[in-house]
TrEMBL record:
Family: Belongs to the GrpE family.
A Pfam family hit: GrpE
Protein name per its UniProtKB record: Protein GrpE
Organism name: Candidatus Yonathbacteria bacterium RIFOXYD1_FULL_52_36
Gene from which this protein is expressed: grpE
Subcellular location(s) of the protein: Cytoplasm
A GO cellular-component term linked to this record: cytoplasm
């Protein structure tokens, strides 16, 4: 046999080896597919679990944020109420001084007996005091001529009405009342007219 013939005879063997390797590769590829599918399934499950945990963490964070905002709002409201109550205590102590001004102004004979300059100075001080109190939420209740309101007025005397239209109206203020931010901290003490027989 010649050298050329020997080489020719070996060629089919190499082809068979290549075919064998190709068949083995195909079998490996078929064997790999179930593993990849299983891995993909596990990855999807893991992703779904991560998404669920993320949603839970996000919801928890949002709830915590809302709880914090609510707690802060409640604390701010309590602080405002504390300040209001502190002011109320101070203002109630100031009210007798305001009553003294009203009594002085109400005594026309005594008030007009002093010099005009002195009266002007006292009236200016009184106006400043009222303006300062108003900035802090204090407003007077001076209801003369208005219908009697038991929420803001305290009747200390009933007097005969001069007309039917005057019935159950305030015809005199004995002592002014005051509100703090709309809340009555002292009702006005008033005289109330009644049509017909006066009531005590």
């Amino acid at each position: 046999m010649s050298h050329d013939d020997t080489v020719f005879d070996e060629a089919p063997n190499d082809a068979e080896g290549d075919l064998s390797e190709e068949l083995v590769f195909e079998e490996d590829a078929e064997g790999v597919l179930p593993d990849a599918s299983e891995k993909l399934k596990k990855l999807k499950e893991k992703l779904a679990l991560c998404q669920k945990e993320r949603e839970e963490y996000l919801n928890g964070w949002q709830r915590a944020r809302a709880d914090f905002a609510n707690a802060k709002r409640d604390e701010d409201a309590r602080r405002v109420e504390t300040v209001k109550h502190a002011k109320e205590s101070v203002f109630i102590d100031i009210l007798p001084a305001l009553d003294s001004f009203d009594m002085a102004f109400g005594n026309k004979t005594a008030w007009e007996s002093v010099s005009a300059e002195w009266r002007k100075g006292v009236e200016y001080i009184y106006a400043q005091l009222l303006a300062s109190l108003e900035k802090n939420g204090i407003t007077p209740i001076d209801p003369e001529g208005l219908p009697f309101d038991h929420h803001e007025h305290m009747s200390v005397e009933s007097v005969p009405a001069t007309s039917p239209e005057e019935h159950d109206k305030v015809v005199g203020v004995v002592q002014k009342g005051y509100r703090l931010y709309g809340k009555v901290i002292r009702p006005a003490r008033v005289r109330v007219a009644h049509h017909g027989e006066a009531k005590s």
